[in-house]
């Protein structure tokens, strides 16, 4: 009996010892970090209240699902967002991101460690426990700005990366372009309405009038919001809409993001075939690889180009 | 049963062998993973001469995980043995009779309350989790005891009531989950299926004291557990105050199960399977059964964690699912065998 007791105590003792051992190396590691710290760096307070020491001119930046902003600021990240082993990536950015390795969207510690970034920028959705672990790998900054406000996000990321000027010039040229395109549109489609519909798994969603591609349609390009859209909009970027409601929608131009492919069941439906915009051939179809479902300066600019091109072509 | 006799006779060397096996598999688990690291790198890191990358990888990511797997596995193994001893039912398991879901419910409630007050110190939060889980487990155990009470308690009634209580707490948990937003829901769902993937040092330290105190106490109580096996009447005849001892033992089991749930989530089958395997190996004497069950629990969770880390690397399968996949066939095998 006593021997068993002492045996289990030994086991426990062994565990405690190994834990202590690692604690010591813990402290030596922080000192190691201090000595290698760049002399040039700034401190910024992030959303979780952490004072993050951000190196000047970070070379290896990791900002998963924020690549749009990085590319706009001429920064190529060390790795890019992906789901299911690369089954889903941000196709619309691949001109700039070609060859950039993939990182799973849930950012496993070992994957982050693999790329040894100088700086990591994340959105708020991570747990505090995970933040602590990431912060040990590299300075990790949690964005303060809201995910639905791409302009604020761009400005904040510009500040973090020390590229305030570039961020401002990207914004300025975007606003300038938006103004030009809006007046261009006003000539051919004055007061006309538009909506963006997304079909995925045979369900339909309509974009929020102030979010994602909705903000481009209505706020930047000045198209009119159909009644149904303003009624439906909840707190989601894309609100569910039934085919019946869509058929009732009085809309001149329908931008249709199709994630289901050309043989979707929906197209067989009589209701679909009777939608006025469908009958007038004023439905413009886009694949899921386009930027319609995303946020950011590049996504918005691409949506803007798509809209203007589609509407001017249909008028001619 | 020659095998069992040999093991029982050489029990000390067998226990030593099990501990050695844990160490060897632990080392193997440190070496394997998405990023590769050699044994010599491990040695260099252990004596403090490794690169920063290897230090992080081993000491901050893989080692705490390994220790959580060992500690949680051992506590579930012991908790299962205790419940099976108390109820004299080999199908009793803290997961089946609702202790885990009671503890889980308490942890989820605690986390929901906590998340409304941001920026409280992380270590205190992690350390208070096992207490919340303990409280939840106790409520579950108390409900079982009260409902099953009919001028005393029969073990079989206790198990049946436990299954009902488990369903009740499961329903409450689902209700709570449905009121959460999507990201919280996902987080809780993953946690409930048993996950140690972001185990870190605070989790190890919050689990360690429970294991250090409660496992030796359980082993110290072996004699009582052995007597309870003889049946209630015999136990009373031998001068054991059965209700009091049962309550004490339940409290210990609940505390161990709760502590493990609070860091590792709902890992099922381990509390059931580890004591079974241990019993097959060294028989029904608790002074031998408990340490072996602890080792088997630790081993199974360790191996399952290695699988869960490497199967879809760098992404992860919740370790609880791996345990269930390994454990369910064993459970069926037990059922089929006990029929014949």
UniProtKB/TrEMBL annotation, chain A:
It comes from the Bacteria. Residues 1-21 form the signal peptide. The keyword Transmembrane does not apply. InterPro entries: ABC_transptr_periplasmic_BD, Bact_iron-sidero_bind. Residues 23-44 are annotated as: Disordered. It is found in: Cell envelope. Residues 58-315 form the Fe/B12 periplasmic-binding domain. It comes from Marinilactibacillus piezotolerans. PANTHER family: IRON III DICITRATE-BINDING PERIPLASMIC PROTEIN, IRON(3+)-HYDROXAMATE-BINDING PROTEIN FHUD. One of its GO terms (cellular component) is outer membrane-bounded periplasmic space. Keywords: Signal, Transport. One of its GO terms (biological process) is iron coordination entity transport. Belongs to the bacterial solute-binding protein 8 family. The keyword Signal applies. PROSITE patterns: FE_B12_PBP, PROKAR_LIPOPROTEIN. This is Iron complex transport system substrate-binding protein.
UniProtKB/TrEMBL annotation, chain B:
Pfam families: FecCD. The keyword S-adenosyl-L-methionine does not apply. Keywords: Cell membrane, Membrane, Transmembrane, Transmembrane helix, Transport. The keyword Transport applies. One of its GO terms (cellular component) is plasma membrane. Its main location: membrane. It is a multi-pass membrane protein. SUPFAM superfamilies: ABC transporter involved in vitamin B12 uptake, BtuC. The chain crosses the membrane at residues 14-37, 63-83, 95-114, 126-147, 159-179, 199-217, 250-277, 289-307, 319-336. GO terms for molecular function: transmembrane transporter activity. One of its GO terms (biological process) is siderophore-iron import into cell. Gene3D superfamilies: ABC transporter involved in vitamin B12 uptake, BtuC. It comes from the Bacteria. InterPro entries: ABC_BtuC-like (IPR037294), ABC_transptr_permease_BtuC (IPR000522). It is found in: Cell membrane. Belongs to the binding-protein-dependent transport system permease family. FecCD subfamily. This is Iron complex transport system permease protein. It comes from Marinilactibacillus piezotolerans. The lineage of its organism: Bacteria, Bacillati, Bacillota, Bacilli, Lactobacillales.
């Amino acid at each position: 009996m006593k021997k068993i007791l002492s045996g289990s105590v030994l086991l426990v003792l062994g565990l405690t010892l190994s834990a202590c051992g690692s604690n010591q190396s813990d402290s030596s590691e922080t000192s190691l970090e201090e000595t290698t710290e760049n002399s040039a760096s700034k401190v910024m307070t992030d959303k979780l209240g952490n004072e993050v020491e951000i190196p000047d001119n970070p070379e290896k930046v990791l900002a998963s699902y924020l690549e749009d902003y990085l590319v706009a600021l001429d920064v190529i990240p060390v790795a890019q967002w992906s789901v299911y082993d690369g089954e889903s990536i941000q196709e619309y950015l691949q001109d700039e991101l070609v060859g950039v390795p993939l990182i799973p969207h849930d950012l496993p510690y070992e994957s982050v460690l693999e790329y040894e970034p100088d700086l990591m920028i994340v959105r708020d959705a991570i747990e505090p426990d995970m933040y602590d672990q990431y912060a040990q790998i590299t300075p990790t900054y949690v964005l303060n700005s809201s995910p639905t406000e791409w302009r604020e996000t761009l400005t904040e990321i510009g500040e973090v990366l020390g590229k305030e000027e570039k961020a401002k010039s990207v914004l300025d040229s975007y606003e300038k372009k938006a103004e030009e395109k809006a007046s261009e549109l006003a000539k051919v489609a004055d007061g006309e309405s538009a909506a963006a519909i997304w079909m995925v798994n045979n369900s339909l969603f309509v974009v929020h009038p102030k979010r994602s591609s909705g903000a481009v349609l209505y706020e930047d390009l000045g198209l009119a919001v159909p009644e149904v859209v303003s009624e439906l909009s909840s707190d989601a970027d894309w609100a569910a809409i039934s085919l019946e409601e869509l058929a009732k929608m009085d809309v001149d131009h329908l931008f249709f993001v199709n994630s289901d492919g050309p043989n979707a069941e929906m197209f067989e439906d009589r209701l679909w075939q009777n939608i006025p915009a469908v009958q007038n051939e004023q439905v413009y179809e886009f694949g899921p690889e386009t930027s319609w479902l995303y946020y950011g300066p590049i996504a918005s600019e691409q949506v803007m180009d798509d809209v203007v091109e589609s509407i001017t072509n249909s008028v001619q | 049963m020659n095998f069992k006799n040999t093991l029982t006779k050489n029990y000390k060397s067998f226990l030593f062998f099990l501990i050695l096996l844990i160490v060897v598999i632990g080392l193997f688990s440190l070496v394997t993973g998405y990023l590769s690291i050699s044994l010599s790198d491990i040695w260099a890191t252990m004596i403090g001469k490794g690169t920063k990358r290897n230090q992080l990888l081993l000491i901050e990511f893989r080692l705490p995980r390994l220790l959580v797997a060992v500690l949680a596995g051992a506590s579930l193994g012991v908790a299962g043995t205790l419940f099976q001893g108390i109820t004299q039912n080999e199908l009793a398991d803290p997961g089946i009779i609702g202790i885990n879901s009671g503890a889980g419910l308490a942890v989820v409630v605690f986390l929901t309350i906590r998340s409304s007050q941001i920026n409280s110190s992380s270590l205190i939060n992690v350390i208070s989790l096992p207490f919340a889980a303990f409280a939840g487990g106790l409520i579950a155990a108390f409900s079982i005891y009260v409902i099953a009470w009919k001028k005393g308690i029969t073990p079989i009634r206790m198990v049946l009531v436990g299954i009902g209580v488990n369903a009740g707490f499961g329903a409450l948990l689902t209700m709570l989950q449905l009121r959460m937003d999507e990201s919280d829901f996902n987080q809780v769902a993953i946690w409930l299926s048993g996950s140690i993937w972001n185990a870190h040092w605070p989790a190890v330290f919050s689990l360690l004291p429970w294991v250090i105190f409660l496992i030796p106490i359980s082993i110290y109580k072996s004699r009582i557990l052995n007597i309870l096996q003889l049946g209630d009447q015999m136990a009373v005849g031998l001068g054991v105050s059965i209700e009091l001892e049962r309550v004490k033992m339940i409290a210990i089991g609940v505390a161990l199960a709760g502590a493990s749930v609070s860091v590792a989530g709902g890992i099922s089958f381990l509390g059931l399977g580890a004591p079974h395997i241990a019993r097959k190996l060294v028989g029904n004497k608790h002074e031998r059964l408990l340490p072996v069950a602890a080792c088997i629990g630790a081993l199974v969770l360790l191996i399952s964690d290695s699988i869960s880390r490497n199967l879809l690397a760098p992404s992860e399968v919740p370790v609880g699912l791996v345990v269930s996949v390994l454990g369910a066939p064993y459970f069926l095998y037990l059922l089929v065998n006990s029929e014949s």
